[in-house]
Amino acid sequence: MNGDMFEQLIESVTQADDIIKGKAKPFRATEFAEPQVKAIRAKTGLSQTRFADVLGVSKRTLENWEQGRRHPTGPARALLKILDADPKHAMEVLNH
Asked: Among 18, 24, 41, 85, which lies 20 to 30 A Cα-Cα from 61?
């Protein structure tokens, strides 16, 4: 690593530290839209109980997502994205 690259790295770490400590704001932030769980479930035609089973979550968790009290994360969020994009084929795979 040359000196110029090292200086850029140090500057980047210093900026990150300032952001973490609240001394600076990030230059950009990436935000992803929350999945519209109820609309995605409607595309499948499933009840809350059956849809929760397909996702591997409790019915109560699904209700919380649909009512905006909680938000899906990780694998559940990815699965919802797949179901939203192609509910027919996703359900064929998930029902096997």
From this structure: 85
Cα 56 to its chain centre, rounded Å, is 16
pLDDT beneath 70: ranges in the chain: 1, 96
The residue assigned the tokens 């919380």 is 64
Residue ranges in the chain assigned as alpha helix (H):
3-20, 37-44, 48-55, 59-66, 74-85, 87-94
For 4-25, what is each residue's pLDDT tens digit?
899 999 999 999 999 999 998 8
Q: How far apart are CA 36 and CA 6, in angstroms?
A: 44
**Structure-block tokens of residue 92:** 């064929």
Instruction: List CB contacts of 3: < 8 A, sequence separation 6 or more.
Output: none
